[in-house]
Amino acid sequence: MTPPVRVLTVDDQELVRTALRAMLRRTDVEVVGEAADGARAVEAAYELRPDVVLMDVRMPGMTGVEATARILRGWPHPGPRPRVLVLTTFDLDEYVHAAMRAGASGFLLKNTTPELLVEAIGVVAAGEAILAPTVTRRLIRAFSDLPPPLVSGGPGGPGDPLDALTRRERDVAELVARGLPNARIAGSLGLTEAGVKSTVNRILTRLGLENRVQIAILVLAAGQGDG
Question: Between 20 and 30 A from 199 (CA), which of 111, 121, 192, 208?
Fold first, then answer.
């Protein structure tokens, strides 16, 4: 039997945390802790080692953006870091852009359906990324805020940073931008899932990116993910 995904919920509104806990109790997701602000979120993540952190962004004191950065960049334990799934009220929220740069793996609006939220938790727990469509459109505008090597054209020099990729890497990047998980990318390109994962890791390293979300934004901003 597959163990449940262990989740830490972070929101400054007790009503939201209570609703999330009640909803997720009826699924295969296990809520292992809650936090009402960013500082406590960091402490709880370090202590509880969840698989996924459901992170609000607008909170008093330490924001969800700073908490995300501290959790992911200051992770004190051996082994994998938790994945951060941002839940935000506004698709125009500039904090979402910053959270992406901090390494968050997914972005959903708080009005999403329970089914999609549970699916998203599973997706990011598996090391992949998920974006609400309206958030995706807003994040494309943040392209100018991606790491400096990308703004200047990446390792390959001036021009399209995707020029630094091989043809196969570009194919994989374009399918990542369409939101396909590794299994579907593998089926589309005649690869193994392990091969896709390895290719994604090479893309991240070659372009100096943090995660699949940034790959998607880069491809979309370059006009490569529309097909």
Answer: 121
Cβ contacts of residue 164 below 8 Å, gap of 6+?
A: 154, 155, 156, 206, 207
Give me 165's structure tokens.
Answer: 């990729």
Is pTM beyond 0.85 here? no
**98: number of CA atoms within 13 Å, CB side?**
14
Cα angle at 177 between 221 and 9, to 5 degrees? 105
Q: Which one, of 70, 69, 41, lies nearest residue 54 by Cα? A: 41
The answer to whether the beta carbons of residues 48 and 122 sit under 8 Å apart is no
Longest dimension (CA), the chain: 51
Task: Tell whether the torsion through CA atoms of 82, 36, 46 and 217 is positive or negative.
Answer: positive
In this structure, what is the dihedral angle of CA atoms 132, 120, 208, 158, given to the nearest 10 degrees?
Answer: -30
61-98 per-position pLDDT tens digit: 998 999 999 999 999 999 899 999 998 876 655 666 67
